[in-house]
Structures are given as structure tokens and as C-alpha cells.
Amino acid sequence: MVALGLRRLTLLVVVALLVLDEQAADGAPWQFWPPGGDPGCCLSWRVMVEANNAKNWRAVPARCVGYVWAYMAWGQYGRDVSAAADEIAAYAASQAPAGQDGLDAWVMDVDDTCLSNLPYYQAKQFGPYDPAAFKAWASRGICPGIPPMVGLFRTLKAGGFRVFLLTGRDEEALSASTAANLAAAGFAGYDRLIMRSAGYRGQSSVVFKSAVRRRLVEEEGYRIRGNVGDQWSDLQGDYAGDRVFKVPNPMYFVP
Fold first, then answer.
1. Is 106 exposed, middle or buried (0-12, 13-18, 19+ CB in 10 A)?
2. Where would you tag: which of 165, 198, 237, 244 has the fewest CB atoms within 10 A of its CB?
3. Mean pLDDT over residues 201-216, rounded?
4. Is 56 helix (H, G, I), strand (E, B) or coil?
5. How many other CB atoms are found less than 10 A from the CB of residue 72?
6. Cβ partners under 8 Å of residue 98, min gap 6
7. Range 120-126, long-range pairs (CB < 8 A, 24+ positions)
8. Ranges for all domains in the chain classified under CATH 3.40.50.1000
9. d(C-alpha 73, C-alpha 243), whole Å
10. Which residue has the higher pLDDT, 138 or 35?
């Protein structure tokens, strides 16, 4: 038993040393520290990201890779998403559908709002967006559901709202895998999964999602009571909804 314990301890030490030796996307070493540690104003950088003051950035700054890893994986991200979900649910309860026409709706983004891509971005050390690599990841259909958002989704449905899942994922390449992934992750019973069709390729997220929301409102008569996303581009533009809610994501930026 003692020998087994020593072997386990040795293995843990080796793993820790390997983690410390990992390199960030641009070759800079990982900075590994307990949650809350901040080697170079990384908390300030994350606040700028969430406030939409840091725009058009392509990758997490090298000095903040470890900070973002710790934030996402060691509990604070989960607590922040849970707090956001609680506020959204409280607002939705105050706006419960008054009639029976079934036209009160919510819009929810998919990536890193409903489904988590954290394993993918951790593996690439939060480097620049790679369309081909991301498509390969998403096509596997193994993104875990984000628990507080699964609960929120079910709360919205139980409250009588229509829920539309709106994503910039490519409809032709990822429709089947995304639908299967959502079902496996607990998002069963949504009213429609709306993906980026060929006609919207090359357009910004704001343009694409505005066009979809406009169609829901003007052509189909829905009232968008709320809109939830991890990117500001999910929440900007036309027919954004009566109220928008941003959930945290310091991993990447979508224009």
C-alpha cells in the first residue's frame, strides 16, 4: 500500500511538472496558479472582454492563458453562469406569457451558451479560431451541456415560452451532429434549431442573427421576450428582444 501511494504521488508530481512545462499558443509558457491569481491584469482584461470594450481580439493574451484556464475550469465560471441563469429565470418569471397564443419567445445561442466548447479550446490553448478544426470538433457531437443553461432552458419551456436556438454553425455541415448533441446534452423540446444557411455565409453574426430575428417577428408574429448569448454579437442588431442577457466567455471573440 505504501509503494502504491508513493507511485501515485510520483505520478501526480510528474503530471504537475508537465502542465507547468506546457506552452501557450504563441510559445510563451503557461502561467499556472490558483483561481483568483492574476499575474498581469488579466482580471481587468476579462472585464474588458465581458463589457465589449476589448474588440476584435484573436486569442487570449499569452500572459493570461493560465488565468483563463483556471477561471473556466476551477469553478468561478460555473458560478458566474449560474448567477446569470438565476437572473434570467427571475426576469422570465416576471414576464410570463399572459395569453394563450403561443407567440412569446426566447432566443438562445448554442456555442458556449447551451453547449460548452471548453475541452476544444483548452486543447488548443485558447489560440486563434481555426474554422476547419472547430468544424471537426463540432461534428463529433460531444460538446457537454452547460448545466445552469440546461436548467434555464427547461424553466423557459415550463413557463410557456417558445424557445428558438440560434447558432452561426454551418447548417449543411453540422445540422445533424448539432441536433444530436443538443438532445444528448438535455436540450430536448426546443421549438426550432436555426443554423447559418448558405445564403448567410460570410456575413457577420450580427447581420445573420438580426435577419433571423426579424423574420421571427415580422413574418411569424413572435414576440422576443429575451435573448441569451455568450457573445455581444448574439445580442446586438435588429429585434434583439425585450431584454438581452450576456453569459461569460473569455475564450474567444465573434464579430
1. buried
2. 198
3. 97
4. coil
5. 22
6. none
7. 121/251, 121/252, 122/69, 122/72, 122/73, 124/25, 125/22, 125/23, 125/24, 125/25, 125/30, 125/65, 126/24, 126/25, 126/59, 126/60, 126/65, 126/68, 126/69, 126/251, 126/252
8. 85-246
9. 29
10. 138
CATH class of 85-246: alpha beta
Give the pLDDT mean for 195-203. Answer: 95
Crossing angle of helices 171-185 and 131-138, in 10° steps, is: 40
Sign of CA dihedral 220, 225, 230, 232: positive
Spatial separation of the C-alpha atoms in residues 255 and 142, rounded to whole Å: 25
Number of C-beta neighbours around residue 45 at 10 A = 20
N residues, the chain: 255
| pTM of the complete model | 0.85
What does the pLDDT look like over 8-63, one tens digit per residue?
A: 444 443 333 333 344 433 343 444 444 446 767 999 999 999 999 999 999 999 99
> Residue holding cell 508537465?
18
194 Cβ contact list (under 8 Å, min separation 6):
164, 165, 166, 167, 212
Instruction: Give the three cell numbers for residue 64.
Output: 493570461
